[in-house]
Amino acid sequence: MDGKQQLAAFPREYTDAIKQAQNSTTAALQAGLRLLEIEFPTSSLASVSGDGEGANEMSFSLGFLRQYLRIFQDRAAATRIFFPDDKELQVARHGKAMDPNAGSRQLDPVFEQTAFQLDYLTRPNAFSDMGLDFGKVAVVERAQPSDERFVCAYPHFNVNEMLAVEELWEGAARDTDRPIVIFNGELDRIRSGYYPSLFYPKIGKLAKNLLPHMETIYYIHNFKGSGGGVLFRAYPGPWQVLRGTPLDPGSLQVIHTQDTMPTLKQVALEILPRRRT
Fold first, then answer.
1. Average pLDDT over the chain, rounded to whole?
2. How far apart are CA 89 and CA 137, in angstroms?
3. CATH number at residue 53
């Protein structure tokens, strides 16, 4: 790491986080990067995936996505947003009622009136979790020549969503200057081997064929417990490991930096324990 490079400060609130994500996007696109990942917790800046009910976490992501997209507002008509599936697209357009049985809250329409091009990645079926998509959507065919960029919104509910992102990359973006931004895709599941390649061979291939082309430009992952901390990055800065908790931002201290992304296992079992006092 260049010792003269200033470290990004961990955000104190979501307004700061969204602004940092926007700045990181601008810097990455200016550097010519074309496959970008943004990942941060949505229940609170101190939360981890699963702290909130799944439907609510996606609803939170939807709201943050709308704020983030102000970066492309002047070219909204040339920006195509792919939601995970056709149902989530309808939620974005029309909102949804409260569902006590599902534990989800009421959500007002976020994209009711917009110049952004709205689309979806998949049409789910009963076999989606096994990677079988009998109602397969030709996602590449819906990308238009007028599209200048693609944003894939939280494609993590079933494996077909990320497989569709891979198809979009290979068929509509890789050999062009059109970038793809993956917004809260929970790609750590793929990196960590959450999906066994024996049962999910397509995901195994995706990890080898897609992830090497990706730059994680904005990232927050919390580690809970007495020795907890945070793995944080805001491009073009380095990866930072901080001790402490975002619940008390003043307690956060940078204890380690590096230019490449460490695994979550390395942070939890090596870096954080090594620096405990």
1. 89
2. 14
3. 3.40.50
